[in-house]
Specification:
heterodimer, A: about 375 residues, alpha+beta, five-stranded antiparallel beta sheet, B: about 280 residues, mainly alpha, MetI-like fold, globular
């Protein structure tokens, strides 16, 4: 079942949590709502679930499979909700937690004892928690608790699964395992899912599509490849991974950042620097898009000195101090690092393989 | 069984020693003197005193009225605590302070105030009298006084527990299709059962021992509205120390057994979901 949100506005007192947000989650997809804390993503999720109301008098609409659900109570929306801090019922066993949604159904549509037992067993098998039926939540690890929460949400056969920072409270390793597992699970059961996260890596890895939010607005929507390689604006670029920022200005059709002078031809630069002489410019380069050389090879380059080398990890991270004192982060492979024989104090040149330049608005 | 768990934090010996000494000094010694004084009378005398019809009627009233009052407080005290813990509204601090008034007032003052209100010509008594409801000078009056006295116990024990409740758990229940009543019955109530039982126990204990606020509104009609503490005072005024202490011992044992029972119940309800941990 698809989810569609149209023109949702929500304020808390004088704080605007969401302003005119619209988005669509296609049937059967796993979509990530990505944004920094306070961007309104959790509020949006809670509104979709019916746990929060939209502002009175706003024109907002929430459609499940083209049907307006605004008037439906949370329990009638057939939504499975997974909370960041699990929100398990502490005084109930794993079995009772998972069975809860079935046991509170009106007598007429409540499954029988046997049916409930079978359904719970099936779900616990799905979330790989068989044999833990009689444990209490306090006796489980964080990852296990979150899987119980997921089984509990799936028990009512929701048309839509909403997950609010589902891995936020877990430690790094469990988090990695669990998000891969979630992806696999989604490929098995294909329930339309929307999950909130502030972790770009998580979103890029797991989701079919990503919606990036900031300050109550949607900044960009697209596949992980789209948002990563074609960021719509500086915020998205900045938010999706580390990036170096250089301040400079446009002079005679060239972007000048200290000794680094860029002409036409660099990605993101085309068309941007003509006819805007004297404007200030900002250049963003990802650490892995910077090259290090010992000698100037004729390419546009910045001069810098190595101040820190961190080689534990899949890539070597090198921090440079540029000629104007700015810090530049570079990531390179171990092979290249050995070739260069870099150490703290080395004098080097760095040049961008790919860069995005934004020129100050005309309107300013 | 080892009494002392090895621990890097010192203090078990000292604190345990002090606890035993202090409880002996403050609680055990005075109470054991009760038993000693009682023992000065012969068994026959003691039995005659404690099984006298008028005394037995007073046990009944004291016990039933205390239970009723504690029960009423459990329900309405829950509502008050819920409101105070969950919502903020203008004047909340004042309401919050008002809850403590029954603690602070001299009991005789509350007794007189309640009697003035519920007497047949009082503010409330005047209006309910035509409906055939009499509060002052009836067992109902005893219940009213004990409810008044016991309310803060329930509210004050529940309030922090309710404030600690995770609201997300209620959201979870709602999104799973539970209605408000089911959420309350199955999710909220089990979570606050231990403090609720504590509040009930405290309110009950207070009711069993209450004297000052009850004797005015009860009217103290023999066999009908006499509470046990009153009979003890009456005996004392007649210099019948052995008789007074004999009744007191009955009260003491009954109270102790009830409180112990509630404590066990409470222990059971709070350890149930940690079994086998």
């Amino acid at each position: 079942m698809s989810i569609e949100v149209q023109h949702i506005t929500k304020t808390f007192g004088s704080f605007t949590a969401l302003s005119d947000v619209s988005l669509k989650v296609p049937d059967g997809e796993l979509v990530a709502l990505l944004g920094p804390s306070g961007s309104g993503k959790t509020t949006l999720l809670r509104i979709i679930a019916g746990l929060e109301t939209v502002d009175q008098g706003s024109q907002g609409k929430i459609l499940f499979h083209e049907r307006d659900v605004a008037e439906l109570h949370a329990g009638q929306r057939q939504v499975g909700f997974v909370f960041q801090h699990y929100a398990l019922f502490r005084h109930m066993t794993v079995f009772e937690n998972v069975a809860f949604g079935l046991r509170v159904r009106p007598r007429k549509v409540r499954p029988g004892r046997e049916a409930i037992r079978d359904r719970v067993a099936e779900l616990l098998k799905l979330v790989q928690l068989r044999g833990l039926e009689n444990r209490y939540p306090s006796q489980l690890s964080g990852g296990q608790r979150q899987r119980v929460a997921l089984a509990r949400a799936l028990a009512v056969q929701p048309k839509v699964l909403l997950l609010d920072e589902p891995f936020g409270a877990l430690d790094a390793k469990v988090r990695l395992e669990l998000r891969r597992w979630l992806r696999k699970l989604h490929d098995e059961i294909h329930v339309t899912s929307l999950f909130v996260t502030h972790d770009q890596e998580e979103a890029l890895e797991v989701a079919d599509r990503i919606v990036i939010m900031n300050k109550g607005r949607v900044e960009q929507e697209g596949t992980p490849e789209e948002v990563f390689h074609q960021p719509a604006n500086e915020f998205v670029l900045n938010f999706l991974g580390n990036v170096n920022l250089f301040h400079g200005r446009v002079e005679h059709g060239k972007a000048v950042f200290g000794s680094l002078v860029l002409e036409q031809g660099v990605e993101g630069l085309a068309g941007a620097v003509t006819n805007v002489h004297g404007k200030s410019a900002r250049m963003f380069v990802r650490p892995h898009d910077l090259e290090i050389h010992h000698v100037s090879n004729g390419k546009a380059a910045l001069h810098g000195r190595v101040v820190r080398v961190q080689s534990a990890g899949p890539q070597v991270k090198v921090e440079l101090r540029g000629e104007e004192g700015q810090s530049v982060n570079v990531e390179l492979s171990h092979e290249r690092f050995r070739e260069l024989g870099l150490s703290v104090g080395s004098e080097v040149f760095v040049s961008p393989k790919q860069a995005r330049v934004y020129v100050e608005d005309y309107s300013i | 069984m080892r009494l002392k768990q090895p621990s890097v934090l010192p203090g078990f010996g000292v604190t345990m020693g002090f606890t035993v000494f202090y409880l002996s000094l403050i609680v055990l010694v005075p109470l054991s003197s009760l038993f000693l004084t009682t023992a000065t009378g012969s068994w026959g005398q003691v039995w005659a005193t404690i099984s006298e019809a008028r005394v037995v009627a007073s046990y009944r009233l004291t016990l039933l009225a205390s239970l009723a009052a504690a029960g009423i407080n459990m329900v309405f005290g829950f509502l008050v605590a819920w409101t105070l813990a969950r919502y903020s509204f203008p004047g909340k601090k004042v309401v919050d302070a008002m809850v403590d008034l029954p603690f602070a007032l001299p009991t005789a003052v509350s007794g007189i105030a309640l009697t003035a209100i519920y007497a047949p010509n009082g503010w409330i008594g005047r209006w309910i009298e035509p409906w055939g409801i009499r509060v002052a000078f009836t067992p109902l009056g005893v219940i009213v006084a004990l409810t008044f006295i016991g309310l803060p116990f329930v509210v004050r024990t529940l309030q922090p527990a309710l404030a600690d409740l995770d609201v997300e758990v209620e959201d979870a229940a709602a999104s799973l299709g539970a209605n408000r009543w089911q959420t309350f019955r199955r999710v909220i109530l089990p979570g606050v059962l231990p403090p609720l039982l504590t509040g009930f126990a405290l309110s009950l204990a207070r009711g069993l021992g209450e004297y000052g606020s009850v004797i005015f509104i009860a009217g103290n009609l023999p066999m009908r509205t006499e509470i046990t503490p009153l009979l003890i005072v009456v005996k004392l005024e007649q210099y019948d120390y052995a008789g007074a202490t004999a009744i007191a011992v009955v009260m003491l044992v009954a109270s102790f057994v009830m409180l112990l029972g509630i404590n066990l119940l409470q222990w059971w309800s709070s350890h149930r979901h940690k079994a086998g941990a």
